[in-house]
Amino acid sequence: MRWARGVGAALLWLALLPFALYAVRFGLDGLRAPLPDHYLFHPETFANAPMSAHMILGAALTLMAPLQIVTARRANGLHRRTGPVVVAMTAITAVAGLTFIALRGTIGGPNMSAGFTLYGGLMLLAALATARFAARDRARHRRWALRLVVLAVASWIFRVHYGIWYAATGGWGSNEALTGPFDRIQVWAFFLPYLALLEWKFARERRATRAARP
Fold first, then answer.
1. CA distance 55 to 93
2. What gap in Å lies between CA 164 and CA 178, rounded to an integer?
3. Per the structure, how many domains does the chain have?
4. In this structure, is residue 123 part of a structural domain?
5. Is the residue at 14 inside a domain?
6. Whole-angstrom distance, CA of residue 171 vs CA of residue 120
7. Is residue 30 part of a domain?
8. pTM score
């Protein structure tokens, strides 16, 4: 069973890698001189810097956060050393994204801004709570760390949802401005359902623990 988890983690990491490399390249665009018609990066604007940081650090976070689950079981020393790095990257990524939204908004308008603001706020909360409980409450640390991992890979899930949707429907309900019916749902659906599933898992674990008590 242990080897199956290892294989699953390796396959997930390989699936995340192309997205992470794309995000790094995209973030580097903001550090260069963006084209005047670039939909995200504008020439000579302060908001480019936080978005570049968000993309580059977010790419690294997408790859590193799932590895924390593996190292927690197999290499606890490595897990403890890299944990603060992952937490710091999560916090900076979240703050950078929230700063960009405050300065520039989002391409999809108020609905997307609201969804992404909640997403960034939850990422920041997960980072702070994971760090807070690391030494004092192992069970809470684990739960918050798993929430952090779900949020860390959610940006990849966002793209996966679009890939599946376009393959299945040809892009019905979506447009370039990201204001179609599917787009408006998607800005919430790429993270909230997965967090809800995780909370369901936690609830089952708590019930099992109570049932096992004499």
1. 8
2. 16
3. 1
4. yes
5. no
6. 26
7. no
8. 0.88
Measure CA 109 to chain center: 20
The CA distance from 75 to 68, in Å, is: 9
| Residue 100 Cα to chain centre, angstroms | 16
pLDDT of the residue at 76: 76
Question: pLDDT tens digit string along 94-121?
Answer: 999 999 899 888 999 999 999 999 999 9
Q: What is the DSSP string of the chain?
A: -HHHHHHHHHHHHHHHHHHHHHHHHHHHHTTS---TT-SS--TT-TTHHHHHHHHHHHHHHHHHHHHHHHHHHH-HHHHHHHHHHHHHHHHHHHHHHHHHHHHH--TT-HHHHHHHHHHHHHHHHHHHHHHHTTTT-HHHHHHHHHHHHHHHHHHHHHHHHHHHHHHHHSSTT--TTS-SHHHHHHHHHTTHHHHHHHHHHHHHHHHHHHHH--
Write out the two tokens for 103: 């300065």
Tokens coding 118: 């909640």
d(CA 99, CA 191): 20
Task: Give the contacts of 154 (CB within 8 A, at least 6 positions apart).
Answer: 119, 190, 191, 194
Judge whether 33 lies within some domain. no
Average pLDDT over residues 62-76: 79
Q: Which residue segment(s) compose the domain that 120 sits in?
A: 57-212
| Nearest in space to 120 (alpha carbons), one of 58, 31, 201, 60 | 58
